Amino acid sequence: MSSRKAARAAAARKREKERAFRDDAGRLHLVLHRDPRTGGEHVSLKAPLFGDAWQDELAASAANTVLGVLRHEPTLDRVLELTRSAMASTSRLIAALLARAPAGAVACKAGCDHCCYQVVGVTAAEALTLFAHLVETRSGAELEQLKTRVAELYERARGLSSADRFSPEHPCAFLEAGSCSIYEVRPLSCRGMNSLDAGECERRLRAPEGRAEFLAKGHGGHAYLEPIQAFRAVSAGLQLGLSELYHLDTRPLDLLAVMRLLLEGDAALGSAWVRGERPFDAARREQG
């Protein structure tokens, strides 16, 4: 290769690297490393994201998993494979963390649904994985019933703030008889929440004074911290990998709103998202 061609190739590689690792605000979070002998690639964090080193290591590992699974050609199937793997890995990690807790410390158990009455934030990858699971496991009639339920809950919640939707009047669309009907593919945030006081959870949801006090404080109650830190680290790594490596929109979505779009909308929404389009803007999660 001539020196001129080599220079052009080097400049093209530099432009591609700069393009690939900047987010919408122009910030760099990931650094690409290439082995000159093998051509193998991996990423690292440009700077710490969290206060604890283990969270940064977990986030970097998640970002590298994105690179390993999607490689240089992201497809919807690969995104689903990636997200299912991340969900399973997060659950295993959190299970290991919970096993270290003192006996009886974690209050969550089957049938305890106090945390299932609030706005749930998800990424498009999580929503698409959940939707694929529904299509695979539910009949046409069951999907139509779910579509109707989601539409009714969406209309009931339209225009309300997150605080207003923290109420027994606004259950998760997937809550059935006190249990999560999509437990296998539940969002990462749901996997991280583990209460240390079920009575407190009940009071802050169902007792008016308890709810008012909880909302006034602006933060959660007594929860086991490490599982929350773990899911946040995994989620951050996935979002950075998808957004900075592949320019996919990972801004938070309202679970109820995005499921309405998927159940009522075009079947090609997922493919459009993988192409770098933003078909879920109407489901953007609003803070407050």
Keywords:
single chain, 288 residues, mainly alpha, two-stranded antiparallel ribbon, 12 helices, 6 strands
Structure description:
- With 288 residues, this protein is mainly alpha-helical.
- It has one domain (53-283).
- Helix content is 55%, strand content 6%.
- The chain is built from twelve helices and six strands.
- It has helices at residues 3-20, 53-70, 76-99, 124-137, 140-157, 162-165, 188-192, 198-206, 208-217, 225-246, 255-264, 269-274, and strands at residues 30-34, 41-45, 121-122, 175-176, 179-180, 253-254.
- A two-stranded antiparallel ribbon has the order 1-2. Strands 3-6 form a two-stranded antiparallel ribbon. The chain has a two-stranded antiparallel ribbon with strand order 4-5.
- A hairpin with a 6-residue loop joins strand 1 (30-34) and strand 2 (41-45).
- The longest helix has 24 residues, at 76-99.
- The protein is globular, with a radius of gyration of 21 Å.
Structural class: mainly alpha
- Radius of gyration in whole Å, from Cα? 21 Å
How far apart are the first and last residues' alpha carbons, in Å? 58 Å
Low-confidence stretches: 11-21
